[in-house]
Amino acid sequence: MSSFKLGAAALLALGLGAGVAQANEGAHIEKLDWSFNGAFGTFDRAALQRGYQVYKEVCASCHSMKYLSYRNLQDIGFSEAEVKALAAQYEVPALDEAGDPTTVKAKPSDRFHSPFPNEVAARAANGGALPPDLSLIAKARVGGPDYIHALLNGYHETPAGFALPDGKSYNTVFPGNAIGMPKPLSDDQVTYADGTKATVEQMSRDVATFLMWAAEPKLEDRKRAGVKVMGFLGLLTIFTFLTYRKVRRKVQGH
Ligand code: HEC
Question: Quick check: keyword Transport in the entry (predicted)?
């Protein structure tokens, strides 16, 4: 009897688990073929630089990325001089000779400029919704870059009968379908220096790549280490097998 109860409880838990998983899944999220997928994955430097441009020119008016410094951009192919010039476009608080507050040009070691001074101001400017910091968002959401790409492409006409609250936009990918972020991208919103056509699809791929790098800048090192470990284990297996054969021959007296 008790084992029956246990079994029933386990089945119930499984059933509930499946129900919860279904509720969280929401819309279908397309799995894209990212250059950084797989054991040999690497970041596409051109896509990273385009993604930074999209973040800087579009997303940064609402979203901070406070764990990044300008000098981190050297990792994605910007030169030291370019990073210095990028940082110098922003002002940071400082003190003048008399000790009075002033501002100076940001340095490469400064963190990315935040659009709002605090959470209250950020919510006030966004109808009560808080634009999350994007430094780690690619790791903080199930689906990571696939989710971000789908979310940015998930804006559609509100279907009849859907009660969309004031100030929200209809998005098929966002849980609950009513998001406090107005559709941020439209075709040709940025002009890419490399001539790539700036469609919503292209910009959302590029910015998702950039956000993936921001959340896991050491991804390439990790994958390279993984490949080395697998290679080492492979060699070890071969040597172990050869030694085994030698020992067996000796034992058998050949
Ligand atoms: C006009 C302000 C604004 C702009 C521009 C903007 N966002 Fe947002 N974003 C928001 C707000 C507000 C939220 C919170 C939405 C909510 O909780 O309903 C949000 C939420 C998000 C989320 C989290 C969604 C989730 O699952 O919780 C991601 C990811 C995101 N934005 C990415 C971007 C990217 C990438 C860009 C640039 C292409 C961008 N946003 C541009 C205001 C903005």
Answer: no
